[in-house]
Amino acid sequence: MKLELLDRLMPALEKRPPRVKLRLFTSGSCRHPEWVTLRGGGLRPVTIPAMWACIEHPSYGWILFDTGYAARFLEATSRLPEKLYRMMTPVQFLSEESAAEQLRRTGIDPAQVGKIVISHFHADHVAGLRDFPNARFIYNPVAYEAVRELTGLSALRRAFLPELLPEDFESRSDTLASAPVITLPPELGFPFPSARDVLGDGSLLAVDLPGHADGQIGLLLATELHTYFLCADAAWSSRAYREARPPHPLAGVIMPSRSDYRESFGRIIQFHRQFPEVRIIPSHCAEASSRWTPGRGTLL
Ligand SMILES: [Zn+2]
């Protein structure tokens, strides 16, 4: 059997990381002309799904990676100035599509979700956080520091809606600052110099993907069948990294650093070329959404 990526990292990890189970879901979508998200794309608007993941860990139980949209997003954007968010990003969302509702239909009680890894603090990734009363939140502290003081228009400019975070968000946070750093040997061809071992057992590796948002992270994990790289918004579609087509420069207006974005995007392209067997899942890829999420709770 071919050695999986995470096993190849074993010298750095010391022991074989436990395998997790993975389910991918879509909670709501928005519409933008294709050319915004893909260089050379068409004028017609395309549907951009908001995906998130539910990971089942043999010891830690249910862990989410982001949440997609939730009803609270619609409430939080019902008045000005927050309404501007929805005017610029027309969102389609039905309450039964929320992360909590979809998990319930899958037989998972939202109260049993123990951890939520947050890729970054844009509203389409954190809108469902309040539906998980017992979850602890894991994220790169750089991502939170960049938005925590923002309100009104300055928050909107960062696609951040403070009221989406639970009141006790900070006391329920376990930031990645305390997670062990794993140096990734360059001879493996791994385009990221290091990763953070989220749970300390090698099962979930967080890598830095800054640019789209400050402190954005992606997650590497392996199930019994495949290795996955959940790359959040560092690439907006599978075509983007396959065909090396970044978003239109206009999309850069929402990015805190275009040069960091280019570097993170370049690393994803390199990662794909180096490890073509790894399934890379951009949060907003329609192709990945239709391929992996229509089964609603299908184990991957
Ligand atoms: Zn997003």
What is the secondary structure topology, with strand pairs?
Blueprint: H1 5-8, H2 10-13, E1 21-33, H3 34-37, E2 45-57, E3 61-65, H4 71-76, H5 83-88, E4 91-92, H6 99-106, E5 113-117, H7 123-126, E6 136-138, H8 141-145, H9 152-156, E7 181-183, E8 194-197, E9 204-208, E10 217-222, E11 227-232, H10 238-242, H11 258-274, E12 279-282, H12 286-292
Parallel strand pairs: 3-5, 5-6, 11-12
Antiparallel strand pairs: 1-2, 1-4, 2-3, 7-8, 8-9, 9-10, 10-11
This protein binds zinc ion.
Detailed description of the structure:
It is a single chain. The chain is of the alpha+beta class. The protein has a single domain, classed as Metallo-beta-lactamase, Chain A. The protein has helices at 5-8, 10-13, 34-37, 71-76, 83-88, 99-106, 123-126, 141-145, 152-156, 238-242, 258-274, 286-292, and strands at 21-33, 45-57, 61-65, 91-92, 113-117, 136-138, 181-183, 194-197, 204-208, 217-222, 227-232, 279-282. β10 and β11 form a beta hairpin. The longest helix has 17 residues, at 258-274. The chain is globular and about 55 Å long. The two termini are 19 Å apart. The structure holds zinc ion. Residues 122, 124-125, 233, 283-284 line the site of zinc ion (ZN).
